[in-house]
Amino acid sequence: MITSSFLAIGLGLEEVQHDIMLRRPHDLRVGVFTKELIIDKMIYGVFMGSLCLISFVAVVYGAGSANLGSDCNHGYNDSCESVFRARATVFSVLTFLLLITAWEVKHFSRSLFNMDRTGHTGPFAIFHTVWYNRFLFWAVIAGFSITFPVVYLPTVNTLVFKHMGISWEWGIVCGCVVVYVALVESWKATKRAFAIGSAKHLKLKTIEGDTPARKDSSTTAEKVPQEGMTTSGTATLDDDTKRGDSIFQRE
What we know:
Elements lengths: L1 H11 L22 H29 L17 H24 L20 H8 L1 H19 L3 H5 L8 H26 L16 H40 L1
Helix pairs in contact: 1-3, 1-5, 2-3, 2-7, 3-5, 3-7
């Protein structure tokens, strides 16, 4: 709750996306929990849960010889080392994935590495994306920082959180983070490719190439009636002048 609360506040302070006017108006009857939001959260939750389960199994059944210990839910004993290390690994994986998700959901369909299309592009565009919202940035950094004391503080880790310090398991944590980012980016790429959810309005970008031609055609269309009006107006004035001259001559 402590970690997610500040992330939620940071996302609430996020500025409006530059392509907001390309999206369809939001149906007020739907509310906040739209169909796209629910589907995204379910998919991201499956990614997180699967990676947490894989990390636990990798520690206990990979390096711990499938030793689940005895009476490990009540306290630490020598038989609980593998379980406690696996719990610390899962705790770190879940915390880091939640923090990364806060940056990923800044936009439902654009990539985190190419989220700002208004002038910051290229391989280093991600730094501008994560730094632009300073509150969210420091909330994520604080979340990363607070993970280590929770894992390593004596007595607090074993008595309160029922886990213990880890070492090589950080490799599993980093691997899960990389895999999670790849999975999320793959899902976003799928949404963009098939115009799913908020990615539908991104297809309108292809129309921008026709804008100059449309402007030229509209300008030409505007010029034609104006020239016609000018010619007809001049002809009318000439006819009136001739009629006035003939009337004057008759008099």
